[in-house]
Design brief:
259 residues; alpha/beta; Ubiquitin-like (UB roll); 2 domains; nine-stranded mixed sheet; three-stranded mixed sheet; disordered C terminus
Length: 259
C-alpha cells in the first residue's frame, strides 16, 4: 500500500500563513504600545509634568490670594488631573466675602480661579470696634486697631439685626457715588417711626429718613444738593414729603412727593 503524502495547509495556502504572521505582529505591536503607554502614564504621574504649573487668582480685593489658595487646597504640588472644579467652588463658597467662583483648567497645567466678592456696604461700629458689613447683611471679622473704615458709611446705635440686614440690602442698591457721600448712619427710632434713620454726610449736611424706600429716596440726594447754595448746610428730611432746613431751623424748601 502506497504511503499517503501529507501536505501542510500552510504550504498549500501561502496566503493563510502570511495572514497569521501579520496577525501575530499586530498583536505584538498592540501589547508593546499598551506597555509603553502604561509606562508613560506612570512616568507622567511620578514626574513634575503632572503637577500644576501656574495658578491665577482674579476678581478678589478684600480676600487675599494666599487665603484663596489655602482654602482651595491647590498648589504647584497638586496633581493637575486630580483637580475638581466643583470641589474648589464648594471650598471657596465657605468664605463669607465671596459671592461666586469660577474655575477653569487651561493648557499647560494652568488653573484659573475667578471670584466675585460681596460688596462692603458699611461698617458696624460697636465699642470702638468696626465690623465690615457685606451687602448680604453678614458681618466680617473686626478691623485691626490700625485700620479705619473706607469708602462705606459707619453704622452706629443699631439693635435690631433683622432691620440691619434690610439696611444692608438697601445700601447695596445705591450707586457708589452716593455711598461715598454717607459718613455715618444712626438708627434713631421714635414712636411714630421705628425705622427712622439719621445720616451724617461727608459734605456737612444731615439726612433724616427711614429704612423703607431708603435707596429710592437717597438716590435723589445729588439733585437736592444742586438746588441749594454750596455754603448752605442743614438737614434734609426725606419721607412722604421732602424738605430742607438750615441748621438755624429756617425752612427753605418744601416739596410733596407721592409715597
Amino acid at each position: 500500500m502506497d504511503k499517503v503524502k501529507v501536505v501542510k495547509i500552510e504550504d498549500r495556502i501561502p496566503k493563510l500563513k502570511e495572514h497569521r504572521k501579520q496577525k501575530a505582529n499586530r498583536r505584538l505591536i498592540f501589547y508593546l504600545s499598551f506597555f509603553f503607554l502604561l509606562l508613560m502614564v506612570v512616568v507622567y504621574f511620578q514626574s513634575d509634568l503632572s503637577r500644576v504649573k501656574k495658578i491665577t487668582v482674579s476678581g478678589n480685593y478684600f480676600v487675599t490670594d494666599s487665603e484663596i489658595l489655602k482654602k482651595s487646597k491647590i498648589s504647584t504640588e497638586t496633581k493637575y488631573l486630580n483637580i475638581s472644579e466643583g470641589q474648589i467652588k464648594k471650598r471657596l463658597d465657605s468664605i463669607s466675602e465671596i459671592s461666586s467662583v469660577a474655575v477653569e483648567k487651561k493648557f499647560y497645567n494652568h488653573v484659573i480661579i475667578s471670584v466675585k466678592e460681596f460688596q462692603r456696604v458699611g461698617y458696624f461700629k460697636k465699642e470702638n470696634t468696626y465690623y465690615p458689613m457685606l451687602q448680604n447683611g453678614k458681618m466680617l471679622k473686626p478691623l485691626s486697631k490700625n485700620e479705619r473704615p473706607v469708602n462705606a458709611p459707619v453704622i452706629v446705635s443699631w439693635e435690631d439685626p433683622e432691620q440691619l440686614e434690610t439696611m444692608a440690602q438697601e445700601l447695596q442698591k445705591l450707586p457708589e457715588g452716593i455711598i461715598h457721600r454717607i459718613s455715618e448712619i444712626t438708627h434713631t427710632p421714635d414712636s411714630d417711626n421705628p425705622s427712622k434713620l439719621t445720616l451724617f454726610m461727608t459734605d456737612g449736611n444731615k439726612v433724616v429718613t427711614s429704612i423703607s424706600k431708603f435707596s429710592e429716596r437717597m438716590s435723589a440726594y445729588p439733585s437736592l444738593i444742586s438746588e441749594i447754595k454750596p455754603a448752605e448746610k442743614g438737614t434734609f428730611y426725606l419721607g412722604i414729603s421732602t424738605r430742607f432746613e438750615r441748621y438755624n431751623r429756617e425752612v427753605t424748601e418744601e416739596k410733596n412727593e407721592e409715597n
